[in-house]
Amino acid sequence: MEIHNSRRMLVLGPPNSEIFTLLQALTGSSPQLEGNNDIAGLSHSWQVRTEYYRAEIPIWIDEIADIERWGEEMLRPEAKEVLSVLGAFVFCFRKPVQQADFNIIQTCLATVAEVIRRGCGATWDGGFFAVAMPQSMTPSLSQTFEEWEDLCRRCSCEFIDFEMKGRNEFGEPTGIERLREALEATEWFGDEDHGDLNSLEDDEGAPVGFDLEATEMQNELLGLKGSLNDEASVDSREHDEPNDEREVEKLELMMRKMIAAKGIIPFFPGDGMFVNGKLPVQR
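RESULT FIELD:
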């Protein structure tokens, strides 16, 4: 399935936070710097191919020099349109050398979380990830993975250590592979793509998803109608009198059983009827 109008990914971090290194590892390439070497405002893309979908994810890049000012700007009414098309925030930072650096990172994560909470809303279903990049200076501030996880949990994001390789004790991927896995599982459908959910097709043009469900149900209903018509013809010949009411009741009962069997809603054997194949209402 092709996603034609995917949501965007915002990759951001303080100056010199190795955003390009992260993008190179994730996407296989990095954007070209402009003449002033300013990375804020640059864009990139990520070609995603999974078992379930194909998409080109646009990536917006931002460099935060003043986190307080950035938070205020992102919560202005004019930024609402930007936030509405974001599917993921990836905050990139170098591991801190001293406590003051750690405090800045903590403030940044809390501010991004607040922007998501207030700007994206409670129903936002995107992802927020904090990626710790290598620190060239030694010694660096000692923080365990559990301490980082605890901080990120309080900020409603997932911590990822860029330097980790392989799998953890639970068999889960770590480092850049974990970031890639989590981003691939993110909801990237844009508004236009959501509008096409009722007419999805697989690679061979066959209906899938809701379209397939509707097709199957329509075929089953046609079969039911045919069966009832056959029964009605026999009954009519035997009794030679109208039985329209009984036919309707039969069809209604069989529809309830069929929809309940498909797991859409429970089966109610009482005196009710389905409206548009949804919840039963009493008549």
